[in-house]
Here is the input.
Amino acid sequence: MMDGTAGEPGRRLVFRILRYNPHDAESCPQLQRFELEEADGMTLFLALTEIRETQAPSLQFDFVCRAGICGSCGMLINGRPGLACRTLTRDLPDEITLAPLPAFELIGDLSVNTGKWMRGLSERLETWVHNPDRVDPSAIEDPMEPGLAEEIYELDRCIECGCCIAGCGTARMNDRFVGAVGLNQVARFRLDPRDGRSDTDLYQLIGDDDGVFGCMSLLGCHDHCPKSLPLQTQIAYLRRKMVRTAFKR
Ligand code: SF4
Here is the structure.
């Protein structure tokens, strides 16, 4: 992504930002050009904020935490999904093209409704702890082995930013595909001893082309996940376990 001039102080950056308001019949998708002087340690989030404050008050983009935790500021950065708050302009060439993440409902400009998509996924895969025997929710949970807690925590680091879906060839062709974010959730609940569902219960949620067998192993999720989650390892593991379970029957 870098060119020979990246990293020099005081560069004049050129931004081409996709502007479109799907709720305005008059609006037509177009790339709008902005220029900005690069500042030390400038992130795309800071650049967009400056553009909005000084040049385009109506520019829409999302952010909450500015620290790579909320997952709100995912966008296409020179064609690759990434987080605006974690991307330094010094790592990019002088010309930067920004567009909204594909595969999600467009709210306007760079803002997309990942929340709606993630909620639908959560309802489909029932991504909450199922424990019908736990009658007293205030009771103290059984202690968990630190090693197991660590393994669950590793998969729990997903921030639901949607970058894996935006970078996934299968998700672009099949809007029912649960993607790496969904398969990672199933892998996470499979490990969790607090969840009463059996492996078979969980495998039924993802044992088809909308799930683990739809993945074409193009590695887009792996390349673009800003949290570097072991997505392809988990998908391959789930596949192997499911095939083994099916042959045991
Ligand atoms: S798996 Fe990675 S890329 Fe996908 S939503 Fe979670 S954090 Fe984002």
Q: What stands out?
A: The first helix runs from residue 44 to 54.
